[in-house]
Amino acid sequence: MARCAAGTIVAKSTLPYARVLADSFLRHHPDIPFLTLLADEVDDCFDPSSEPFELVPLQELPITPGIRFRYTQQQLTYSSTPYFLEYLLSRGFERVIFFKQESLVTGSHDTVFTLLNHHPVVLTPHLLAPAGIERELNILQSGAYNVGMIGVSDEPSARRLLSWWERRTATHCLHRVVDGMHYEQRWLDLAPSYFEGVHLLRDTSFNVAHWNLPERDNAAARLFRFSGFDPHDKERVTRYNDRLRLDDLGTAATMFKHYADLLRAAGWDEALEWPYAYAKFNNGVAIPELARDMYDDAFPDPFVTGPGSFYDWLNEPLDGISRFWRTVIELREDVRDAYGNDREALLAWIHTSGAKEHGVPPEMLP
Amino acid sequence: MTIAIGTIISANYIAFARVLANSLREHHPGIPFYVLLADDPTGLPINAEPYFMLQLHQVGMPNLQHLLGRYDHQQLAVSAKPFLLRHLLDQRHDRALFIDADTLVTGDLSSLLGCRASITLLPHHLDPLEEPGRELQVLIAGTFNGGVLGVNRTPTAQSFLHWWGERLWQDCRHDREAGLHYDQRWLDLVPSFFGDVNILRDPRINVAYWNLGERRHVVPSLFHFSGFDPDRPNQVTWHAPKLRVADLGETATLYRRYAKRLDEAGWPETRTWRYRLGPE
After folding, report:
1. DSSP 3-state assignment of B56?
2. How much is the pLDDT for A297?
3. Which residue from B194, B206, B137 is spatially nearest to B161, judged by alpha carbons?
4. CB contact under 8 A, A140 and B170
């Protein structure tokens, strides 16, 4: 009997997803360990030993400070996926299923574990049949295969895939459709070309979600996904599609409402308050998102502050305006058009709209 | 078990079709080769060609007049692919292959000819590349190459051709943000939608400028001179104007031989035959 495991990745504020997911998985597979990677720090916010899963700290993975800095909370959970899968295989697990955090297991996944006996990799296509040009283009933009459920075995082909995928997600896990990037997911379009034995799970009971609801039978679903679902949003099915309303879903709406209840019961509101561990420089200053984009790996630990640090480099004044703000202004054609080189006007903009629009803390204002 | 191979050209590419046809005959003499002329042949000295010629009205493209008004010669040629393949299957061939006209058969194609799956696709690359930047370009253009693909006479393949034909009729252009790249990008969805797909991982098939680096030690069976312009014989491809044939080592000989064959097949004359079916 091969050693099986399942897992997911969360930050602290999204821990309730992992609780609900783990509970649902264990209901169908009580003897298979469920592990959760925390792409964050515990910081005494909760007690890992009382969770329904084994918590894996981020330090177990070769995720550098640079990677933690470069990415937002969400991007970090995505980019950690191949690292986490590789970790599970090196722990000795032979058949592993990864679930993205907003998922509910509603049926047995024996099919997938069995497939992994003969195929090193199992991927789930978003769509299994033509669905009209608009929906298909949407999938082409975000990637043919959904990262919400992935299976890997300890075969060399799977390990090669994970090794390559890690190299890509370390630096190229962003949302830039025009450049061919959709976080970690779009890279998988290359998997069937590069690696032997990539099996596409063409089974409609898995990975039922907002993009394929019309053609799936929710009663028969084994894995339900709730991408972009906010349990407090009474109207929208997902933040990725404004037009899709819960009221339009028919019987599937019950599933979403049930999931919202489960999340709230799992501490959703409490967890939302838990601060993200990688949100600040070591001196307590909040990291604006553009500072993450500006990260240069010439600085091995960008969280560190003081002389010679990335923080100092960002704040270094270049003709009265810091390098950080100069870069922001370079990106803002509208600001350049409005104020040109008028330093007074630019400074005024920085202190008013600039700081607000770019989430820049007071310590980084001139 | 019969196989047919087809390609599509505008009139000015007829020299390419002739060279391809002859090279195919050298290695696989029994296989019928069809050339769909996506152009107006009126008045052109086309006869006694080394292949079967087809015209657009023979392959059943719906609403052709409307398409001719919307698409340039390249879009038209590319949109005709599913219809050519369907036509070949309808002619009672068990298997049909499409190959871009700018290719040369240089060896045994058995692995391509013998595919038993409903659909055969060729990846651009068979191994990860060094640079993420190049891989992103492949993702934008489509992971499978639209220049070489095969179908067998099965309901699955017919569904594929029907769907692909419909998409190409609706839209056939390059638009990164939308997720479009002519006919090719749609192929990324084929393994998901249609199952029974063989992703052919034979490095001898479809060797081209984009994968030459990783196939340096392979003796090619099918070489794809994508973007080669015989009037610029030292430029490998117009897709990457800085690449020079002189820098390709042994492969330079292949390019020079190809240029010579095109010349002998009438390129200097036929290159002047302007597309006459619609907007350039």
Report:
1. helix
2. 87
3. B194
4. no
Whether A137 has a pLDDT exceeding 90, the answer reads yes
**Secondary structure class of A88 (helix, strand, coil):** helix
d(CA B259, CA A291): 53
How many A×B Cβ pairs under 8 Å? 95
Report residue A166 as tokens: 């890690």
pLDDT attached to residue B107 = 98
Q: Residue B280's pLDDT band (boundaries 50, 70, 90)?
A: low
Place of tokens 């019969």: B2
Start-end of H helices in chain B: 14-27, 64-70, 73-79, 81-90, 110-113, 132-141, 155-170, 190-194, 251-264, 267-270
Global pTM? Answer: 0.95
The phi, psi pair for A114, rounded to 5°, reads: -70, -40
* Chain position carrying tokens 């990106």: A331
Q: What is the pLDDT at residue B269?
A: 95
Distance between A73 CA and the closest CA of chain B, angstroms: 23
For B187, the closest chain A residue by CA position comes to A140
pLDDT confidence of residue A242: 84
Mean pLDDT (chain B, rounded): 95
* Three-state DSSP class for residue A184: strand
State whether residue A7 is helix, strand or coil.
Answer: strand
B174: closest CA of chain A, how far (Å): 11
